[in-house]
């Protein structure tokens, strides 16, 4: 089955700046590659600092009017945008599968997930409350009001081309901010289509500006936003190394930052767990998007008394996964994003085997399917000396670590600089309270592998970043608090 668009006009190759589709200032382009075939999907604008600056100019011009709109007026536009996203699900999913590689079923799910943030923040736009502070001195009235922070720069990764940018843009727009955005170099097409639908929904010119860029030019574009004091906030999802760079380089203008960074999620299976449910949880958490997620389990800890049984159950489920391109409707795992990703996965598996691990299933490149495929893999005998213990594999590899007791596994789970997500399975309600309290992570799944929701706060601790996306807390990072003290009232 060939992947085709119903609305071919949703495939945009230009930037959206000030409501107009324009080429990069120097007319440069770069290719977007389909990871399933290594063929070119489209050539898009390759933007640099000049284009980023033009986007900021447009956002600055649009900000006063957008800020002053009634919250319900902003909400109405967001609701129309949501309706258009849902209406164009199939085309958005097709674009996503073409440039990112995930199976169509997953792409459709991501469209619905991303759209849910737009709908959520459409409602939240009308619920930005301030406070009247109880009177402290006679003749004075003190109030606190929340105002949009200003221009927001959104920088997103390739693994969720629609959801990541929707959950950054939607709260910014709901709060009354204007946005300049740069999607990942590998996956700009879905984001550009999303921007086109926002424009179609009636979003005023300049409120949302989107530029595409390859790696070097993208660095220059982002550097312009970091140095520009008109950009008051950076929201970024990606590696910890890049997040630290953004924090350092934006310090001169004291921007507000939201950083969702790397993870090294533990998944703990206690001996009193429902093993069928725990296996299902690993399948949901680990193998979504082929393991290319920041919250997928990187270290699976299984208590000794159930270790062999769990390993056998999991390997049977993993071995049955269908690996195929998105054009195959039965595909459950697609290609990895590029050859670098495949090389890293292979390096991690080879290192694990050299350090004593056993491959129960998978453990090889699937070159018969194409250059960017790797077999879903289960490893037993994993230990702390392996790369899979200390680095994100970002692929369909499930290493199983053995543990003896609760104190030991808590120590092992927390023995990482990262703290984005963690999971554990147990039937003991007292253990649920203890372990949930002791695990160092911003998101914890308790007897659940699928934790994401637009109604829940998402973000990490330690070197996994700060700030929260989604939920009622998701607007806070796009707002500033102004205190007003009115005197002379007596």
TrEMBL record:
Aldehyde dehydrogenase domain location: 21-483
Active site: 260
Any matching Pfam family: Aldedh
UniProt-listed InterPro entries: Ald_DH/histidinol_DH, Ald_DH_C, Ald_DH_CS_CYS, Ald_DH_CS_GLU, Ald_DH_N, Aldehyde_DH_dom, Aldehyde_DH_Superfamily
Keywords in alphabetical order: Oxidoreductase
PROSITE patterns membership: ALDEHYDE_DEHYDR_CYS, ALDEHYDE_DEHYDR_GLU
PANTHER family: SUCCINATE-SEMIALDEHYDE DEHYDROGENASE, MITOCHONDRIAL
Protein family according to the UniProt entry: Belongs to the aldehyde dehydrogenase family.
Designated name of the protein: Succinate-semialdehyde dehydrogenase [NADP(+)] GabD
Record gene name: gabD
